[in-house]
Structure formats: structure tokens, C-alpha cells
Predict the structure of Thiamine-monophosphate kinase.
Amino acid sequence: MSEFDLIGRYFAALGPERPDVALGVGDDCALLEIPAGQALAVSIDTLSAGVHFFPDCDPEHIGHKSLAVGLSDLAAMGAEPAWATLALTLPAADEDWIRAFATGFERLASAHGMRLVGGDTTRGPLSVAVQVHGLVPTGTAIRRSGARPGDAVFVSGTLGDAGLALRRMLAGESVAPELRRRLECPEPRVELGQRLRGVASAMIDLSDGLAGDLGHILRASAVGAVLELDRLPLAPQLAELVAATDDWSLPLASGDDYELCFCVPPAHIPNVERLAEALALPLTRVGWIRASAGLDLRRPDGGRLTRPARGYDHFPVADDRAD
Amino acid sequence: MSEFDLIGRYFAALGPERPDVALGVGDDCALLEIPAGQALAVSIDTLSAGVHFFPDCDPEHIGHKSLAVGLSDLAAMGAEPAWATLALTLPAADEDWIRAFATGFERLASAHGMRLVGGDTTRGPLSVAVQVHGLVPTGTAIRRSGARPGDAVFVSGTLGDAGLALRRMLAGESVAPELRRRLECPEPRVELGQRLRGVASAMIDLSDGLAGDLGHILRASAVGAVLELDRLPLAPQLAELVAATDDWSLPLASGDDYELCFCVPPAHIPNVERLAEALALPLTRVGWIRASAGLDLRRPDGGRLTRPARGYDHFPVADDRAD
């Protein structure tokens, strides 16, 4: 048995057992049972060292984040997490690293009732691909294409914190642990996503910044939107920074927020207010959908902001992803 | 829109449309509908440059093989291919490369009625992770754990061809195109796998060599086996090489055969013979399952061969995968 086979044992039984897993890790395929009346929601994402995380990032955080980005995609459809698969590429069979990675992955998987059902561990430059599988009652998933003129636009949590953490780390500055967690250990809004079924008309998770991600909803729905900049939910540090510089690129165009942006018909707005209270999570109305195309970034004085360059100011090697 | 977004367009509609895809590429998740009475079979695999293929390998072949390895896993469960997702990591947004990759991927996907429903394209060292999804009537999937004493052991096709191609390429020797295709463009035995439902008691696909992969069946089934070496199906080149050297490592312990190894209760052996004829594919009885543990490699004179070192003699960087 090779080192890599041994390491595979860390992934043999990760996350809670589920009765719908007929066959888990250890055969050519996993076998899964989908209940009648449920659709399967799937998404795959890769995190690569030096592109999506610093190569010396705590492996526990890499384990967490590699699953969190997929959970955030499930949340954005209103789906309930079920199973994950993991394709892990490692430069060396470092057992300490893998143990920490598995710890971070498992903690988040268990918090969301998700079971790891398959994987592949190979040698190569550090990279993690995770596929998530979720269930959603047929016909109730929340797509990007359902926004209608007059809908309110909401976002959860606060914007730009992860972008600020990254900017400071790239500049070699110290970053408070709580701010760094916003970058390295985002909390996907899984429960919020499910509770917005029947409430939200369209939804997306924020991975590349509000302006760009809301833009995906606008294109898919063939509508436009107005954002009122003074309504954007900002943590104190962000609010001070924006006030001092009039630079909106962090809240509007930086990556890794992993908050949800969703549209809500006026009749459902009270449901959102109740949800915010029930989940103890800020859900802030930041604008509205209109029929005419384009995204209007409106200042408090009525003036307009030019959309900041896509702040996918991730790691240097990825800078071609900027617009 | 970034270069990588543009490149993503090559993957927007790949493979045949399927009515069970409620939502394909382009939202946070794909939405898929599983028919009643079917289980979902999933498997994820990564191919990395320099580990699983030569960095200068024809991208059309990389596209083919990255899907073929997953199709081979579906075949080994007796599952019918349905959907795939693709996590592609590229050092640069090279449109010619991606077009060729997509061509190879699509040709094989279309041949098996498989639709690409989601993906992620990022920058980094060349690596391809593919997850395949298949359907199999509930309770009929063929696992590794069902082999019973007295079952016959069969393999499809011929053994060791890919290993021979790789060995020659690593030595800088010329390789005939047909032999090279066995390494770079394996044909997964998808139809055979499905037609063995109700016939085979256990099955695995051969990715790491017959001795090791049959060993997985033996452990999962808590049985042993005898292989009769003179029955192993070898192409003429392999047969000559083995006869000249008495080195059995290629047919027994080299990677990438992507043939199926399966066990068959005696009553079903005539079905296998009929299947071989119907599919015009050699299905060769190479040994039998016995109650006592271990794998007995029997020579024609009754002597025994020591199991060759695991010939996962892939690319040099992966040499720690040898036993």
C-alpha cells in the first residue's frame, strides 16, 4: 500500500453517515439514492495553491474553504447539502498536512450534514477540486434568471471583508484573525439559501464581488438594477476606508465574500425581515431591479459611480482574471 | 469578460442535450432529475500533467482520457453514463489547446450520451478533474464485494498495452500510433459493464494492473483467486516480450489498461461467451475465485510466479506510488 493509499484512509469516513448513501468511499463509484420529488444540484470548484490561497495557508483552513465554496453554490440554489467528492492533488504525502486538511473539511461537512462519498488523491502541484451534491424539491430551486422589475435586491452579511484581508496580506501587513477568517474560513449561508425558497425570485453567491455577480443575475433575467451605495452593509473598517478614499472596489468588486445576493418581489419583503431576525444575520436591502438594462451605482447625492474594475485581485498569478 | 470566461464558452453546451438536465452550465449549480428506481453512481478523478500524461500530450487525447477514466468507473459498476462536470486548471488561456481538449472530450461524451453540466476553469499548473454521474437500476450495481468461491475470473480486451507504450515513451523509443492510443485514448468498456448486470458477481476496472486491481475485489469479497498465466490475453507484441523475458510486470502490474475484470458464477459463463460475440470484444477467462485468501499466479508448468512489483510505472514524479 502506497503512502497515497494510506493517506486516502483519512477520507474513508468523513462527515456523518447518511441512509441515502448505498455505497460510499472504496468502490469504483459511490451509489446514492435520490428521494422522489427532489432534484439533484451539483457544482464543482477548484482551489489551487498560489491562485486561490497562499501556499503556506493553514491546511485546516484550506479544507474548510474548499468545501465552503461549493456549499455556497448549493446555498445560492436553495439546495440542502447531501454529499461531496474530493479530488486532492498534493506535492508530497505529508500526513500532518492531510490530517489538518481533513479536520477542516470534516468540521464544515458535519455542520451541514454532508458526507464525503468519493475521491481521488494524486501527486502534483497542490490543488483541491470538490464537487458538492445537494437536494432541492423539484421546481423550487432559485435560479439567476427569475429577477423581475420592482424586485428588491438584498445581500446577506457584510461586503468586502475578505478582499480587505487579502489586500493587506498581499501588502505584507498584519491582519486581525477575525478579518483573516473572512477570507480563509468563509461561512456559507446554507440555511438562509434554503429558507429563501418561495421567497426570492433570483439568487447568486458572491464570489467575485457584488457588481459582477449581480451582473450575472441581470443578464440571466434580462433586467437592470440600481444599487444605492449608502445602503451597502459594511463592517466598520470597510466603512472608514471607503469614506476616506471613495474607493468602492472592495465592497463592489473584490472576491470571496461568499454572501448571498438575492431578489425579492415586494410582497415577500416582510418574510426577509423575519428571516434576518430568525437567523441573526443581517439581510440588507441594497437596491432594486428595473426593466432597463445595466447596473446603476447610485451615490447618496444622486450622482453615479463608475463601476470599479473587477477586483478579483486574488493572487498575483490570477491577475488575468481582471476585466 | 476575462480570457478564462471566454474559454468557458467552449464548455457551455458539450455533449448531447438530455431531457433530465433541468439546468445545465451557467448557474451556481446544475439541476438534474433522477428517474424513480435508479440510483446515482458518481466518481471523480484527476489527471495531472507530468503525472498522468506527458505535458506535451495532444490536448485532444487529454480531453478524451480525462473523461474515459470516469466512464471506465461507471462501466465497472454497470452504470449508464449521464452527466459530467469538469474542473480544468490551465497555466494559460490557450484557445487552440482548449479547442482541441474540448473536441476530444466531446467526441467521447457524445459517443456515450453524456452531457457536460458544470465546470470551473482556473489558472494554475495543468490538471483536469472530471466527475462522472451515471444511472443504474436500484440494487443492480456490480460491486467489488460480490465474488464467491467457484466464480470464474474474466478480463476484457488485452492486458499491458498501455504499460508497454508508456515504457517505450519513457525510454525515448518510437511507439506505433495504435499502441500509443491504448495509453492516451483508452476505450472504456461502458456497454460491456451494463450488459454484465445480473451476470457478474463482482467487477472492477483495470487502472493499476490486474494483480493489484483483482486484489481489491479479493479483499472486498474476503476471498482469494488463482490466475493461470498462460490464459492472460496478450497482444502479439506483449506475448513475445513476456516469452523472451519471463517478465510479467506489464500484463499483471502496469497501469491504464481500462479493461474490466469481473467474476462470474459458473451458471452465467455461457452469457459471457455470448456477450463477447455480440460486442466483438475478447472476454477471456483467466482464473477462478477460491475461498482461501491470496492471489496465486500459476505458471503453465504448475509453478508459481511471485507477484511483480506494482507496475504503476507511470511518470517519474509518481514513482512513490509503487509498493
Remarks:
- Residues 43 and 132 of chain A are 6 Å apart (CA to CA).
- The longest strand of chain A covers residues 38-48.
- Chain A has two domains: 3-137, 144-314.
